[in-house]
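User: Sequence in, structure out. Go.
Assistant: Echoing your sequence, followed by the structure tokens.
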Amino acid sequence: MQLQTQRLQPTITPVLISATPIQNDPLINRGEEKVVYIGVVLIAVALVIAVWKLSPRVEHAIIFAFVLSIALIGLFLIR
């Protein structure tokens, strides 16, 4: 099978970059951010309560994993 090859000419397309952010974007729902934050906090509290009731071993394992994750994230951010 023979493939035809031809050179492509490079094209430069202009890119429009706005220096100021668009504040009135109808696709961004800024009014519900507080509801999302409250939901995240409630889920975190519910998870802590569920783990606390489940088993102390699981609780210690999750705390260890969380502390180790934070330490690794900090280590990689410092580098």
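User: And one key feature?
Assistant: The chain has two helices and no strands.
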